[in-house]
Design brief:
Helix content is 25%, strand content 25%. By secondary structure, it is an alpha+beta fold. It has a single domain, classed as 4-Layer Sandwich (Deoxyribonuclease I, Chain A). The structure holds one DNA strand of 18 nucleotides. Belongs to the DNA repair enzymes AP/ExoA family. InterPro entries: AP_endonuc_1, Endo/exonu/phosph_ase_sf, Endo/exonuclease/phosphatase, ExoIII-like.
Length: 264
Amino acid sequence: MRIATWNVNSVRARADRVVAWLERTGTDVLAIQETKCADDKFPYSVFEAAGYEVAHTGFHQWNGVAVLSRVGLADVEPAFPGQPGYGDEPAIEARALGATCDGVRIWSLYVPHGRSPDHPHYTYKLRWLEQLRTAAAAWHDADPQAQIALLGDWNVIPLDTDVYDVADFAGHTHVTPAEREAFFAFEQAGYTEVSRVHVPAEHTYTYWDYQQLAFPKNRGLRIDFAYASPALAARVEGVRIDREERKGKGASDHVPVILDLENR
DNA sequence: ATGCCCAGAACCTCTGGA
């Protein structure tokens, strides 16, 4: 089985490109982030015509996450237990969606950006990651054999070698010790970040800004990751970062991360 | 080469993204 995660930066602007990619790569399950649309504007029919079931949560033009599957889609949850809200009257945002696809519990995750280390969005980001880790630990404790995939745009640069020049991020989000600690805490919860295991090369990126020739100059960031529970990690045969997908007109600023699982 | 911000809402220019 082939599963993947991709921040598509608007599903309506890129639906045809996503379908073409699904068919070209033979991907069975895709977690997508930043759909940037409300549920009633999601282009369901484009994906259904290609043979995929769709689960989506989106309230307006921001955030939005989905799971597409051609191997079954069940037990959809539009948020994780304890997921924090944001704002003066805290509201749950469309940043997490869970669904079970052929025995694998898939979570499509769009971690809050943080804006800047002195912004309320930053403390929200840390709280969000901590609550997700708490939920993920509980899932694993409840069933140590569960196959769980935490897939998405984590908005954290875990290592200095995950960015073209870490000095450019001094004073910014994504590289602070608290964010990195929150990211690596998933290891203590029993999860393994399998893209690092299979693609360990330094300066391997998943995102390049649209501005200032970032992609041709390879000024990118590695911020899209796949944490797997032990039972799922043992099943991962390979991981690929599809850098080709950043090329050409109409590309997202992120590229897909693909996991190949041993067939059961 | 991959090419010098993009998408959405609204209809002008802001918000958010990193």
